[in-house]
Specification:
Length: about 500
């Protein structure tokens, strides 16, 4: 027990002490489970791994963009409210059913709410499968830009290069796209193969501090730029006349995506929590860190945009879209505008790659843990089987922009050509909201009060936590918010 004591652990140490002074022997069931099921070595391990899952392209790529499109201030405030009112309660709900059952998505939902709810778990596993198939492709782009920026830093930045052309050349090259995605998939499989404490947690412990460090360096550099004041005003001064009803739903939807909710990823990570770790405290830490990182990324990007003349117009005119901010505008700006950009450029793409990798491993873990818990496969076999099966679809996604017949032209939803756009449309609009609705209803309405209360109010919870308030949000507020998204999608809104 003592050997497990973490080096730095704000929550864990206190609980270990409680345990030691009370001298409670672990019950037999727990001892049995910890032998067969791998667990996070400490609360910090859990928080870092889950935060790694949450922080990803959603924070660095999507959030700054939707904040821009929705005119900043008021949208950011609504987003923060959604995070607190919808995201945080569901984070606790997912982690708690995982911890309670010690099973991944399908088994945990069955145990919590009844056998039929296994279907919602299966829906989540499918969502993870599809999401990972195209997320890997975007993650691969960060490797390309890392290589490019390194070559510019050590060589020289090509004067007169048209940034948009560089991007188009890379996405339309089939061998390059396949190679980048293959490299990223292999890295993901390589981590998940080693399991929870030796693979996923280890990587999170090393990578997340690096990620935070790079982001803080960039923030300092960005705050020194001339546009930073304007950026901060744009992000933090609410102007409610500019807020549209659909922006509110976009905020709800994004709060799901960014926290990796609605598809069982957090249920799965919750199933590796041992009973002495607090679900409530961990949820608070994960949600807070994810939100801070999204805001930092936005401040950094907007400081650059507001410092460069003409940039704002380009973004508004749609010349620089969601993809554009991260992969078209920024690479060039590092070498022309950003203080210390020659160093920060490559570091930034390391940051994107690390953030994406800690998310892709959690996506793969959702599918892998399903094969382990429900289909009886060993970890190594389960990782290879799921990793390779998903990669087959990654090939489709990687070829979506290459002009290759069929791969680039297949169209299921109108205007969404290729597997990449089709899958993104389906996951963002349908799979995550329906999965999220299912999970809130399962935990809020079908799990007994006694069961959820005993998980959350177990002596590990912090003082600010109130079970009644949590229950109200999970039963009423969260399902209503998600239902509203689904209704808007039915009426034709596109949230992808
Ligand atoms: N949260 C991730 C991001 O912001 C994306 C994501 C959504 C995810 N659902 C997930 C990652 C499930 C891992 C598992 O980029």
């Amino acid at each position: 027990m003592l050997g497990e004591e973490p080096l730095w652990c704000p929550f864990g140490v206190e609980q270990y002490n409680i345990r030691l002074t009370q001298g409670t022997p672990p019950n037999r069931l727990e001892a049995h489970m910890s032998q067969t099921r791998d667990h996070w070595s400490s609360n910090t391990g859990l928080v870092l791994a889950a935060t790694g899952s949450a922080i990803g392209l959603g924070n660095l790529w999507k959030f700054p963009y939707i904040t821009w499109v929705n005119d900043g201030g008021a949208f950011v405030l609504v987003y923060l409210i959604c995070i607190a009112a919808v995201g945080l309660p569901i984070m606790m709900a997912e982690l708690l059913i995982g911890r309670r059952s010690q099973k991944s998505a399908v088994g945990a939902l069955k145990d919590a709410a009844g056998p039929a709810w296994g279907l919602i778990g299966g829906w989540g596993v499918t969502a993870g499968f599809i999401l990972l198939s195209y997320y890997t492709v975007i993650a691969g782009w960060s490797l390309f830009y890392f290589a490019k920026t390194v070559s510019w830093t050590f060589g020289s930045f090509p004067e007169g290069m048209v940034a948009g052309d560089l991007f188009n050349d890379q996405v339309s090259s089939a061998p390059l796209q396949l190679g980048l995605s293959l490299a990223f998939s292999a890295a993901t499989i390589g981590v998940v193969y080693f399991g929870v404490s030796k693979g996923i947690e280890r990587v999170a412990r090393v990578f997340l501090p690096i990620l935070f460090g790079i982001l803080i360096l960039m923030l300092i550099s960005a705050l020194g730029m001339s546009g930073s004041g304007e950026a901060l005003t744009f992000i933090f001064r609410p102007n409610f006349t500019e807020l549209e009803p659909s922006s509110v739903l976009e905020a709800v939807g994004h709060s799901f995506f960014t926290l990796s909710l609605g598809m069982g990823a957090m249920i799965t990570y919750g199933s590796y929590i041992s009973r002495k770790q607090s679900v409530v405290k961990a949820s608070g830490a994960i949600v807070a860190l994810d939100t801070i990182i999204a805001l930092f990324a936005t401040i950094i990007m907007f400081s650059v945009i507001f410092s460069v003349t003409g940039m704002q117009q380009q973004v508004d005119a749609g010349e620089v879209g969601a993809v554009g901010m991260l992969f078209v505008a920024l690479p060039e700006l590092f070498y022309t505008q950003v203080p210390f950009g020659v160093v920060l450029g490559p570091l930034f793409y390391v940051l994107v790659a690390l953030a994406a990798l800690t998310s892709t491993i959690s996506l793969l873990e959702v599918v892998t843990s399903y094969l382990i818990d429900e289909r009886g496969l060993g970890r190594h076999k389960a990782t290879i089987v799921s990793g390779v099966a998903i990669f087959v679809f990654t090939i489709f996604a990687a070829l979506s922009f290459t002009g290759t017949p069929f791969f680039s032209t297949l169209e299921v939803f109108q205007g969404k050509a290729g597997w990449f756009s089709t899958a993104d449309h389906f996951v963002s609009n349908w799979m995550l909201p329906i999965g999220g609705l299912g999970i809130t209803i399962a935990v809020g309405w079908f799990m007994t009060r006694k069961a959820s209360e005993s998980e959350l109010v177990d002596g590990t919870e912090p003082k600010w936590f109130n079970y009644g308030v949590w229950r109200f949000f999970v039963r009423f507020i969260a399902p209503a918010a998600v239902l509203a998204i689904i209704l808007f999608v039915i009426l034709g809104r596109d949230f992808s």
